Amino acid sequence: MLIQREELQQPPFPLRRCARGGIGLYPDTWWNLASFSASITFFLLKMAPSTYSSHVVSLCLIVFFLLSAVNSQYEKYSFRSFPRHELMPLESAYKYALDQYTGEKWPETVEYMEVSLRLYRLLRDSEAFCNLNCSSVRLDDEEKFAEFPELRAFGNVIKRAQCLKRCKQGLPAFRQTMPSRDTLDEFERREPYRYLQYAYFKSNNLAKAVSAAHTFLLKHPDDDMMQRNMAYYKSLPGAEDHLKDLETKSYETLFVRAVRAYNGENFRTSVSDMELALRDYFKIYDECLAASEGPRNVNDFKDFYPSIADHYIQVLERKVGCETDLTPVVGGFVVEKFVATMYHYLQFAYYKLNDLKNAVPCAASYMLFDPKDEVMKNNVAYYKYHMKQWGLTEEDFLPRSEAVRYYNQTTMQLQMFEFSKQRLASDDEVCECCVILHLKIEISKTSTSLITINVFTSHESCLQFASRRSICAKPVGKSWD
């Protein structure tokens, strides 16, 4: 019999369920809410005085949460028809929001912080749009450069740059002053939500405050201050219903829906939603790669090829980070090996539908990402044992093409990035790394405040020290953090 992973018998990623007793609530139906409040108030008036006040407080908090239902700041966002009155430099909007925050002007803080988040999304979407549209642009007569590979390579680079220039001239996001790399990094780290959650709270919008705090904690689960804030929010009745990621992607919703259908043994619906989730994920992953090809800050001046390599390494680092950034968190748990997990669900759901022609390629696709998984190895062996009986061919045991492409791309990107960090680090970076790590070694060895630090007279002695002590395998960069 086909083996099913233990996680697949129960929800592998606990999903928060909103269990409400008593009268069913429909927050978006105002007359239902009003009649519900009236009936409960009448009921409470009949209760003993000692219990009345606490129930009224709980009811008020529940009703307050319902009245402040969360509408994401992206609800009316449109890449193709961005409101003209909101177009402004991202840096300016964000700085103005922070100034309003400092001045405790909460409505203005909320307004401009939300605008800045939409401007950031517009910029990323615009970057992705142009880079995707220009990704296949090449020289018209490449054969002419057959004997001159450098001219051919950079001819294609120039053609692509020309395409990008034309594309960006037609998009409103690029008519604004570009933000600094530091500002973009803050948005990538979801820092605006740190301010937004408090501004929402001070604006008496607890529902959005809970969602903003939750959105921030997904990126910073160990942030003490936000954890304390969240503990307070969770102590309020109805708060659990608003633990929503305001930056959630479409494939996350589809994935959760597919898992729920799977656990309810509604395998046809599960397959349909999981296939959509897979397709949406690959689309958004490609957009993330394209959006990674934006501008960079030039901090030093190097020769031609080292300078190009430096820029590409920065781009590559952001591309490598796409896989982690797009990994969903469901019910507080990170969905490890997300793409592989989707194929795992698919292979068993297809099997339960007696669709072996689709089940087997999904199993093979999973094996790309986790070839040592004993459960899936047994499943593949089971499929092969019944190969003739089920009319399967050797081609059916090949992984799906999109899985192969994704696996090869993520693997090669990571290999190239690690190679570049190891082989192209400057001597200064290596030397500083040696000093930092030697400092840490001495701190760990000494029981007094006396710390010895090697002072290197040359880069060569620094490198010899690193090699001799087997430290500094990977440079940490110019930072003492």
UniProtKB/TrEMBL annotation:
Signal is among the record's keywords: yes
One GO term describing the cellular component: endoplasmic reticulum
GO biological process terms on file: collagen fibril organization
Keyword Glycoprotein: yes
GO molecular function: collagen binding
Keywords per UniProt: Glycoprotein, Signal
InterPro entries per UniProt: Collagen_mod_leprecan, Leprecan_dom, TPR-like_helical_dom_sf
Ranges in coiled-coil conformation: none
Classification via Pfam families: TPR_leprecan
Positions of the Leprecan-like alpha-helical domain: 89-386
PANTHER family reported in the protein's UniProt record: CARTILAGE-ASSOCIATED PROTEIN, PROTEIN LYSINE HYDROXYLATION COMPLEX COMPONENT
Similarity section: Belongs to the leprecan family.
Protein name: Cartilage associated protein
Organism in which the protein naturally occurs: Nothobranchius furzeri
